[in-house]
TrEMBL record:
<feature type="compositionally biased region" description="Basic and acidic residues">
    <location>
        <begin position="44"/>
        <end position="55"/>
    </location>
</feature>
<dbReference type="InterPro" id="IPR036397">
    <property type="entry name" value="RNaseH_sf"/>
</dbReference>
<feature type="region of interest" description="Disordered">
    <location>
        <begin position="43"/>
        <end position="86"/>
    </location>
</feature>
<dbReference type="InterPro" id="IPR012337">
    <property type="entry name" value="RNaseH-like_sf"/>
</dbReference>
<protein>
    <recommendedName>
        <fullName>Integrase catalytic domain-containing protein</fullName>
    </recommendedName>
</protein>
<dbReference type="InterPro" id="IPR001584">
    <property type="entry name" value="Integrase_cat-core"/>
</dbReference>
<dbReference type="Pfam" id="PF13683">
    <property type="entry name" value="rve_3"/>
</dbReference>
<feature type="region of interest" description="Disordered">
    <location>
        <begin position="1"/>
        <end position="27"/>
    </location>
</feature>
<feature type="domain" description="Integrase catalytic">
    <location>
        <begin position="5"/>
        <end position="64"/>
    </location>
</feature>
């Protein structure tokens, strides 16, 4: 298992962890729920939009869903599917 090193920084300090702070800013602007079920629905919608619809600069304008979807598998060659002679 690969270990990750924890790095702490000052909250609200975008120079240290700009991407995370930017996402939190977007989340705060987007969410306007008054109840927990409303909040859950809005979080689900935001997650779907963020991962399925919104193009990401770091992913060459593709969505994370497109970038992480499995590539089509290559079918086996005819010689590997033939049954052995008995």
């Amino acid at each position: 298992m690969r270990r990750r090193k924890q790095k702490n920084c000052s909250p609200g300090h975008p120079q240290t962890q700009g991407g995370v702070e930017r996402f939190h800013q977007t989340q705060k602007r987007y969410l306007a729920a008054r109840t927990l079920p409303e909040l859950q629905k809005q979080l689900d919608q935001l997650r779907e939009h963020y991962n399925e619809n919104r193009p990401h600069r770091a992913r060459d304008r593709s969505t994370p869903a497109n970038a992480s979807s499995p590539s089509p598998t290559t079918p086996p060659s005819p010689s590997s599917t033939s049954t052995p002679a008995t």
